[in-house]
Amino acid sequence: MTDNNTTLAQAAQAFQQGRLAESLALLNAAHAAAPRDPMVLLSISVVLRGTGDSQGELNAIERSLVADAYFLPGILARGNFHERHGRMTQAAKDYGNAFILG
């Protein structure tokens, strides 16, 4: 049985090599092993972005923030998501919150 760090490393390698489905499967396994780990959820959002699943990306970002409302990488990712989708007011709110936390 592999530990979660090994699974995460394998997921990162698969992502870097363009094997997005494999990366997502590994990250989902890591999430099942550590369901409240916001970094795993944020990693899932990155892979979903790579697949073009914008709604899935945002859902994963939001779930990372449910796991930890002060998770700075998640707040920044949400701001970036909103910015990329033309939601500048929401992006500014997220970036402002990140500035306050940082």
Notes on the protein architecture:
This protein is an all-alpha fold. It is built from 6 helices and no strands. The radius of gyration is 14 Å and the shape is globular. The termini are far apart. 30% of the residues are buried.
Characteristics:
0% strand; globular; single chain; 80% helix; 6 helices; mainly alpha; 102 residues
Short overview:
The protein has about 100 residues and is mainly α. It has helices spanning about 5-15, 20-35, 40-50, 55-65, 70-85, 90-100.
Percent of residues in beta strands: under 5%
Which structural class matches the secondary elements?
mainly alpha
Report the end-to-end length measured between terminal Cα atoms: 38 Å
Give the SSE string: HHHHHH
Number of helices: 6
Low-confidence runs (pLDDT<50, min 5 residues)?
A: none
Helix content: over 70%
Task: Tell me the radius of gyration.
Answer: 14 Å
**Which whole number gives the mean pLDDT?**
96
> How many beta-strand elements?
0
Query: How would a crystallographer describe the biggest sheet?
Result: none
Report the principal-axis shape: globular
